[in-house]
Amino acid sequence: METWTVRTDDGEGHLELHTIRPAARAPGGPGASGAAAAAQSQKLRGEGSGVVIVHGTLITDQLYRPFARKLVRLLGRPVHCYNRRGRAGSSPQPADYSAATEVADLATVLRETGASDVVAHSYGGFVALQTARNLPIRRMVTYDAAVSLSGNLNQRWRPELERSLAAGQLDDAWAHLVQGLETAGPVSRLPLGALRMLSILSARTNLGAEMRELLPTAVAEMRAVLAADAELTDFAAITTPTLMLSGGWSPAYFAETGRQLADAVPALSFALAPGQLHEGPIRPGNRLALRTARFLLGGTDAATPPPGSLAGSLAAGGMTGIAGRVPARWRPIGPGR
User: Fold this and answer.
1) Distance CA 219, CA 212 (A)
2) pTM higher than the cut 0.85
3) DSSP alpha helices (H): ranges in the chain?
């Protein structure tokens, strides 16, 4: 895995990127000098047909790297994960942070990597769809995209979240966030007192502690989603073939939004991913990666997979997966299905 940094177009910050490439094309090779490896790495950053993954809120890109590695093996293409502003090695969110900040940053990542496709989760799906309204992207897959249509997410916003955060009451803030968004499955329906206790317990883990630190970014991101509230007609300009997936066990409002958008915009299609929770892309398993790769390879504009690659088998109808057996029955996903 290669770690590198790009400057943001507003001149106010930078983004930390992690790139995973097919093994046969790893820059430099085992005997390359540091200078030669760096030069080849710089050259490869501009190659096309790669994929950019846009992560969700309250987490970093680290949790998506296993998913990215699966896509690399399936597609035979480089996959780039980047940390959005406010976390890890990227710059803090600017004072005037908005959806426009994220759109400009994703545009920068696409340009600097030369990638043509986007895969995005939750808040990342919101960023990807906003970007596709103004920027050409070859193909795109979103999972539980957090898009506000005609104010449908207003009820998800808890003012108590921001008040608790300002008072330094992080356990209360976490409880209000989980209860409002309902993204933690049945746990989201627990009383606030039980959620506070879960927050205290989870803070003892590395992931739980990191999520607490990222709570201020979640407030800014939720406000950005609500401020970008749109009507279906606002997405009519999207021409990027896009598969909007939603987990079968995710909160129902994600699927409802996906269905509405797919019914209104010809370039968008919607499908449920049975048995998947909201955090599907960061959980073990191959089904989402397989479904994502299948869509990215589909259509007459898909790049020809390298001979003998997993992607080649996939495009030809082969169903042997990354680890273990994959069901032989795999229904193709088309517009409106």
Assistant:
1) 12
2) no
3) 34-44, 65-75, 99-113, 123-132, 159-166, 170-181, 192-202, 206-213, 215-227, 252-264, 287-297, 310-315
